[in-house]
Amino acid sequence: MESATLAGAFDELAESYDHPHHEEIARALIEWTAPWTAESIADVACGAGAVALQLARVRPATARAVLAVDLSAGMVAAGRVRAAAQGLAAAIDWRIADAVPLPVADHSLDAVLCASSLHFLGRRAPADWLRVLRPGGRVGFTLPLATHFRPSGRFAAHVARDVSLPRTADEASAWVTECGFAEADSRVLVLGTRRVVVTSATSPDAR
Questions:
Q1: What per-residue confidence (pLDDT) applies to 1?
Q2: What is the CA radius of gyration of the chain?
Q3: Whole-model pTM?
């Protein structure tokens, strides 16, 4: 029921989504994670596909389609329209599904990116990313900075209680390291009055 309620909330936002803000976050996340050599990539809780679209623009035409997963049918529909308008319809594999667990086999991905959504998914998300990533695979995500996060009442109820929003970049790196990742690196991104932490890390070579 909670997933259905959250999906409905994002369905209603699909037509008025703040694309420029999320495009900027996606750009910073991709640059920080640098998944340029990754063959198999997933955009987790993709929304209207800001990450997937930016990746699709720079990948070779022969590259495997970027997997874009979101539980909101409205957001996925908006993403499909945007992809088609940019000539990228075949470059993204859209799926309407819960982001956790990802609908892929174990150790089948080279990179997982998650922009502006981890605080709704909870700690089960990085646990699933360890499952789906190959050893040495890259993960990148953003989290709102605790000192600047003021969710509306409707969305505040869906913020995961097992994700401690970081106050600093070091706290974000420490958290993902506790989740089992290695080589964590984070920075704070300033977007007007908003602050988000951008983090990249690596799936360990040996489990």
A1: 35
A2: 16
A3: 0.87
